Amino acid sequence: MMKTRTIQQITYGQPMDMGGFPIRQALPSRNVEMLDPFLLLHHAELTVSKNIDVKNAGVGPHPHRGFSPVSFIFKGGVHHRDSRGNDNVIYAGGTQWMNAGMGVIHSERPPADIHEMGSVQELIQLWINTPAKHKMDAPVYIPLTAAETPVVQSDDQLTRIQVISGELNGIKGPVQPLSPVNMFTVRMNKGGQYFIPFAESHNAFIYVLNGIVQLGDAEEIEEFYMAFFNKDGTGIALTALEDSLLLVGTGEPLKEAVAAHGPFVMNTQTELMEAFRDYQLGKMGVLIEE
To answer: Global pTM?
Structure first.
């Protein structure tokens, strides 16, 4: 039975400076610290300067441990390199999914051909917590191109949904997260309507990159806003009031203690201190960008 969830909270993607880059942060916010297992959502649309070598643009080498930093790319591309030897470029419509596990150092630069594509990068980075039992697993990097991402299309052709992880209408996403997580990018033409079902135990959100959508029978949200839902239904009903682009995530709560600081997300303060120590001792490897 289709029962639409009601809205628990709506937050705004506040503009902020993140190490010299203008981004919008919708999670965490003043009212929502986290939505288990989702920890952080940053939305960035950047123009890459032609006066800087792309090898020095973007985000340089930095470490992570204990969660999955996932980049959904909407314009341009991202060149990922890491201390495990991965070296890959993913363009618009693709996803870079990394389980940081016990620790990895990576960089996220514009691709060499970014200026041929208009010099613009647009992406969302979402941090997804890792269950305690997997936090010290070996790191895994999963590059997913647009062509490799299955799509669910509505009968009226007004809604097109990329299934990145989890399942929608019998279509399974190629990425297998370390806990049950559905991740979808949704493009809707004005007038499109779609009901996205998922487990009643999941937490769920939508973030609007552009456009305006109506949620259920009432609330409307527009670009740069993020909606969190109560656990009182079997899915989310969407109606596009304008051509719209959304990121939709649902996940089984881990219900575990979270100790986070900077690039590390663990379960205790002791584990956090161990993460900083291991990074300083070089146990997360070395990344030398060629």
So the answer is: 0.97
